[in-house]
Input
Amino acid sequence: MSQDRPFTAKSFYDFVREKVLMGCICQDCKTIMVPPRMSCIECGGERLRWSELSGKGSLETFTIVHVAPAFLKDKAPYAVGIVRLEEGPMITARLVGLDVLKPETFKIGMPMVVGYADEGGRPLLVFRPA
Output
């Protein structure tokens, strides 16, 4: 796994394809960003480096998607949520391992862990209950 990649969405999803969750960290103010940015969202610094993240977090919010993009059409309905990672940043991803027909099984604050999926040749992050 080379960490000498540009801080782009393509690089981020190349890591996802390798089943690694990476963010970038500002070497000036230590802000962690997921997905990566070209400059720090806090201080505007450009001294960034890749940082492997634990993939553990908690569910902040979620929604059930009934009308999906073409490459996920056969998966609808499915859940999408925002997970706050242990390292601090939040990330949006598909949620798996819960019954979307019973939204009461989704609990705000529940522990989540990252997983990886391939949908139509596209690498995707997913989170499931820990």
